[in-house]
Amino acid sequence: MYVGRFIVVAPDRAAYRVSSRSFPNRQVIERDEALTVAPTPDAPETDNPYISYNCLRTTEGGEFAVIGNGTQVDPITEKLDLGYPARDALVEPLLALDYEKDDYDTPRIAGVVGDEESYIGIVRRDALLVHAVEEPTLVATYEKDRPEATDLEATDPGAMAQELYERDLEHPVCAAAVARTDDGFETGFYNGE
Q: 51: domain range?
């Protein structure tokens, strides 16, 4: 089954996988205190604005981590840094940016992991859904486009990224993950190596 990009958010951790039929030449890299989805060195040139973006950031104070499939990750993080409640910081950019205006009306998905509360959200052409997370919850851009309970066995970020990458869903490209620790957040990624 092809579900496109998807995230899994749990109360204390989250992971994101890029799945793509159209642009498989991408990888997760560390850049400027964020994890960024970027073209691989051998990727063909494109002017598609949805190919490269920060997929994972943490707030300056280390209270929250934000994960998602596009440019919404940055304004969500910025709103959290300004002191917005986690739910509001997630909802406002999803609503403002709306779904991607590409050939597929690709939904935007995002999650926030916090010390006391975590949320998962999606904005589609026909709906904006945001759910508080009490167990691992998945939402994808296609097919599984409503938050639903799922498994997430790994707790180490690198292992979580690999677990999502290896999930039995079509066209894996790369994955990123984050976990809350006693000292803040730890991140990891897996590019299918």
A: 6-190
